[in-house]
Amino acid sequence: MHMRVDIVADSQDSDPGFVGERLLDRYGADLRLRDRDQLRAGDTSQADLILLLGSARSAREPEHTAVVHAESELVRSALDSGTPVLGICYGAQLLAHALGGQITVCSQPEIGWYKLTSQDPTLCPPGPWTQFHSDALVAPPLARVLGTSPAGCQAFADESRGARALGWQFHPEVTTKRFSTWVERLHTYCERHGADPDQLIAAAPQHEAALRQAAYALTDAAITWLQEPRRTRAAAESGR
Q1: Whether the Cβ atoms of residue 157 and residue 146 lie closer than 8 Å to each other
Q2: Are 85 and 163 contacting, i.e. CB atoms less than 8 angstroms apart?
């Protein structure tokens, strides 16, 4: 199985981590970066999958309205043309917004490793998973909520358009190196939301091996679910 994956991300923070590793190693994916700040209204994608990564920005902030609009249009266009979309953290919030959901201020910010309550242990295992957010998402009106935490919706699946969409508020992709970089860069942010930066950096390595294996399994589950309609159509067409 070979697939092209468009990774929509901030240019300075575009590492797909464990999810990218799995897409490369198992699926031979061609990973192509699309800088979200360079997206324009009307942009399209020829990929087999669009992966929306996280961001330090908030999609609620007025100064990002044009960027949010362009990325939302890309998401809707991709889904309508049959290309599935997978969103992580900010990417999941953006995906929810594009499909009629909401982005809100998180009542209980999560920075570190948290378990969640799962309604679908295949597409949203209970973890613990890496978290790094103070915004939250409200799932689109036609979506199925897959997991929750005190902070809100942790995952959703949507089949309301031409292709499937899946969003994870948590970060299955994040390596120890990337997480530590975030903490160092956002030291004041972590403290403001009740997290100890030094303790986070010290604890990160002990989670890496388990998180990598969990991320690989979750990536496989996501690809299976997201690509199922395409495989079904291809099988039907080959049988004609």
Answers
A1: yes
A2: yes
187: annotated active-site residue: no
Catalytic residue, candidates 71, 133, 173, 207: 173
Report the run of H or E that residue 4 belongs to, with start and end: strand 4-9
**Angle (deg, nearest 10), helices 90-98 and 65-80:** 70
Contact indicator for 167, 137 with CB cutoff of 8 Å: yes
Phi, psi dihedral angles at 144 (to 5 degrees):
-105, 120
Dihedral-angle region of residue 142 (phi above 0 means left; psi in -120 to 50 means alpha; beta otherwise): alpha
User: How far is the C-alpha of 185 from the C-alpha of 31, rounded, in Å?
Assistant: 26
The CA-to-CA distance between both ends of the chain, in Å, stands at: 22
Residue 200 and residue 160: Cα distance in Å, rounded? Answer: 39
Catalytic residue (choose from 97, 133, 171, 207): 171
Alpha-helical segments (H) within the chain = 17-27, 65-80, 90-98, 176-185, 187-192, 197-238
Q: Which residue type is seen at 32?
A: R
41-64 pLDDT, tens per residue? 889 999 999 999 999 999 999 999
Q: How crowded is residue 68: how many other Cβ atoms within 10 Å of its Cβ?
A: 22
63 noted as active-site residue: no
> Which two three-digit tokens encode residue 70?
């362009």
Active-site option among 89, 106, 153, 190? 89
- Per-residue model confidence as pLDDT tens digits over 160-182: 999 999 999 999 999 999 999 99
